[in-house]
């Protein structure tokens, strides 16, 4: 596997007359958990959409696993979990997994392992529309895991989850990375920054910091990563 999973150069995205992302340049290493952190509205979802190839870009390039973002060859290699659950509300959990397994062309019995991974094995017979928002999000994640993707892109996957489930999901993310999967996980909750191998901090459509949690602390002289983020933003604005 190439040591770089995602390479972005000069990425610009406009929405109407407003520039949402302005000339982003960064690379994401393979086989690690990279956190994309920043306040709501800073451009995280637009960047994620650009990486998975469903966003129209104004300028620049996005390369994913050695190919242009959105290339047909990437469809079986990239898993994408959106903020809004992307499963069928009128089907049971098990039926959703069977359906997405057939779409992906993978054995249906992978659904059992995927449900175990997201702690929903006891809900396999439940209709998705009757689940909580956090449970529906975990069904979406289970469906994304079916294809055993090389790159897993997760847009705020822990929103609405209780602390124990958040902890267990982050353990899963690191287990997947240890087996070679690259993960890009967005969040607006700064206490999740310490759970990442590497961080991309966003503010108003720009990457204001790129490095490990330890490097960010050293750069800013802050012990707390939220304080470090504030210091980075203040330095950029100065």
CATH architecture annotation name of the largest domain: 3-Layer(aba) Sandwich
Question: Which sequence of strands runs across the widest sheet?
Answer: 6-7-8-3-9-10
Our estimate of the beta-strand percent is 25-35%
The average pLDDT value, as a whole number, equals: 92
What coarse outline follows from CA principal-axis ratios? globular
Outline the biggest β-sheet: 6 strands, mixed
Query: Quick one: CATH class of the largest domain?
Result: Alpha Beta
| Secondary structural class | alpha/beta
| N- and C-termini, Cα separation | 41 Å
CATH superfamily of the largest domain: P-loop containing nucleotide triphosphate hydrolases
Any idea how many domains? 2
Low-confidence spans = none
Number of helices: 7
**What is the C-alpha radius of gyration, as a whole number of Å?**
18 Å
Helix content: 25-40%
GO molecular function: ATP binding
InterPro entries: AAA+_ATPase (IPR003593), ABC_transporter-like_ATP-bd (IPR003439), ABC_transporter-like_CS (IPR017871), P-loop_NTPase (IPR027417)
Keywords: ATP-binding, Nucleotide-binding
Domain ABC transporter: 6-229
């Amino acid at each position: 596997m190439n040591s770089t999973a995602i390479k972005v150069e000069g990425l610009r995205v406009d929405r109407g007359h407003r520039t949402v992302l302005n000339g982003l340049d960064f690379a994401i290493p393979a086989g690690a958990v990279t956190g994309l952190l920043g306040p709501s509205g800073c451009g995280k979802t637009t960047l994620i959409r650009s990486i998975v190839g469903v966003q129209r870009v104004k300028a620049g390039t996005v390369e994913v696993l050695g190919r242009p973002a959105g290339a047909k060859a990437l469809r079986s290699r990239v898993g994408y979990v959106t903020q809004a659950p992307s499963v069928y509300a009128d089907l049971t959990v098990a039926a959703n997994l069977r359906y997405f397994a057939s779409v992906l062309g993978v054995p249906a019995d992978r659904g059992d392992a995927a449900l175990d991974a997201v702690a929903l094995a006891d809900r396999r017979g439940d209709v998705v529309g009757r689940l909580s928002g956090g449970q529906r999000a975990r069904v979406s994640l289970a469906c994304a895991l079916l294809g055993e993707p090389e790159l897993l892109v997760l847009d705020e996957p822990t929103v609405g989850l209780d602390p124990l489930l958040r902890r267990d999901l982050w353990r899963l993310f690191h287990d997947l990375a240890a087996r070679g999967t690259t993960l890009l996980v967005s969040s607006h909750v700064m206490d999740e920054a310490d759970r990442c191998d590497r961080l991309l901090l966003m503010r108003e459509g720009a990457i204001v910091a790129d490095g490990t949690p330890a490097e960010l602390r050293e750069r800013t002289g802050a012990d707390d990563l939220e304080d470090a983020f504030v210091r980075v933003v203040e330095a950029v604005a100065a």
